[in-house]
Write a sequence for this structure.
């Protein structure tokens, strides 16, 4: 089909928004599955099926289905050389994801405002009760003084005793609260010791590669980001993982992810990156469906990039769940994009199928895996905003564009110096702003 006909046909179908039937959701699921199967052998047919699925998804106002359709059509037009149309659908895909992110931020702000209002009202009630109590005590004192000096002296003695007793009770309560806080902090610190213990030795990477670094910077005491590496059947396998949440909830997710990776690779003997992600996705969904009484949750999961290296034959295999891989050759940065869905993410009830990418390596190639903590950090009033007027510090992220420029610039240095450069750049950008997420960057030189 000609590119103009493609575009006209696409816009025509997408505008046909009517009443969606109860069978539409199942149809969207089936149509996307057929489109993926035909993508290579029968691209025109795959295009038609994907287009039909997108139309139904828009009728349902289902963001995930719409994102899948825009992403698929962008790929179709890109392969046909229709880059303007490809860009248009890719922007629609980005808008869908950006809208979901803004809605989540708005929801969080509403919850924080509600909590603040509740806390303020409770404080006002406590103040009113306190004022009432003080007024009642003062009135009682005046009455007793008028009646008799002796009774007043006794009353003052009783008031002094009550105040002292109240002070002593409050002091005991504060001491108990401090003790509880100390125990909680000790427990979290002990959890950090456990988390640090299960993280693999970073020296293992330097054993297999010419040079390597792991830049790991938790937001809190414990982290939702973690790295995993091991040797299995002549393959060196490494993963960079970003679990839902940070702090204690993220740490629990990271421990579960570490356990599942050990089971998948060492017990089930899977070494192909896409097979590892397929199995991890199934295991996480099963685990949290049990927790949710069989109901799927969109909040529990992880983004992850997995690489396996055949260093004898210099072959890299990569699969990503909402993560990409950067590789630098001769000073030029390149990107291999992973799949846009994450581990544990549910899409029309269909199991996610992850893609395996292969790359023939050359001596001196540099590979980078990372979470989104570095690009998403706010700050930066001391650095330019891509040549534009800088936004306020609280509104500006580091962004993937700056992160790519930074990686390409420091790639000329030794890995140890690269790690130090990343740390300096992060601290300079963050300044006095609070760290918003865990940070993980892994660099390897072949």
């Amino acid at each position: 089909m000609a590119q103009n006909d493609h575009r006209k046909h696409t816009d025509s179908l997408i505008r046909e928004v009517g009443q969606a039937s109860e069978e539409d959701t199942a149809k969207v699921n089936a149509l996307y599955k057929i489109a993926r199967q035909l993508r290579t052998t029968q691209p025109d047919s795959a295009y038609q099926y994907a287009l039909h699925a997108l139309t139904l998804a828009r009728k349902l106002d289902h963001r995930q289905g719409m994102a899948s359709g825009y992403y698929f059509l962008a790929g179709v037009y890109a392969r046909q050389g229709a880059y303007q149309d490809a860009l248009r659908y890719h922007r629609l895909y980005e808008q869908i994801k950006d809208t979901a992110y803004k809605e989540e931020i708005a929801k969080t702000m509403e919850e924080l405002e509600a909590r603040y209002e509740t806390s303020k009202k409770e404080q006002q009630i406590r103040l009113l009760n306190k004022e009432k109590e003080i007024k009642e005590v003062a009135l009682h004192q005046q009455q007793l003084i008028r009646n008799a000096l002796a009774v007043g002296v006794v009353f003052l003695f009783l008031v002094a005793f009550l105040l002292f007793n109240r002070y002593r009770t409050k002091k005991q309560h504060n001491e108990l609260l401090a003790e509880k806080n100390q125990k909680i902090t000790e427990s979290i610190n002990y959890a950090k010791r456990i988390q640090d213990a299960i993280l693999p030795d970073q020296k293992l990477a330097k054993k297999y590669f010419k040079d390597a670094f792991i830049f790991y910077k938790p937001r809190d005491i414990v982290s939702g980001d973690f790295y995993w590496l091991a040797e299995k059947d002549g393959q060196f396998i490494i993963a960079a993982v970003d679990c839902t949440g940070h702090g204690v909830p993220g740490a629990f997710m990271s421990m579960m992810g570490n356990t599942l990776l050990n089971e998948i690779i060492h017990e089930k003997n899977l070494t192909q990156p896409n097979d590892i992600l397929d199995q991890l996705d199934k295991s996480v969904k099963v685990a949290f469906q049990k927790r949710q009484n069989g109901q799927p949750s969109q909040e529990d999961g992880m983004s992850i990039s997995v690489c396996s290296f055949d260093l004898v034959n210099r072959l890299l295999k990569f699969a990503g769940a909402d993560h990409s891989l950067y590789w630098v050759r001769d000073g030029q940065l390149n990107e291999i994009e992973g799949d846009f869905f994450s581990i544990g993410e549910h899409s029309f009830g269909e199991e996610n199928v992850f893609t395996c990418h292969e790359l023939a390596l050359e001596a001196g190639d540099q590979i980078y895996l990372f979470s989104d903590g570095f690009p998403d950090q706010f700050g930066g009033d001391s650095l330019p905003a891509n040549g534009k007027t800088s936004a306020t510090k609280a509104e500006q992220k580091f962004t993937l564009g700056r992160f790519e420029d930074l990686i390409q610039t420091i790639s000329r240095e030794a890995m140890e110096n690269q790690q130090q450069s990343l740390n300096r750049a992060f601290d300079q950008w963050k300044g006095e702003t609070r760290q918003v997420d865990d940070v993980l960057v892994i660099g390897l030189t072949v």
About this structure: Residues 307 and 318 are 5 Å apart (CA to CA). The mean pLDDT is 84. The first strand starts at residue 211 and ends at 217. Residues 83-147 form the longest helix (65 residues).
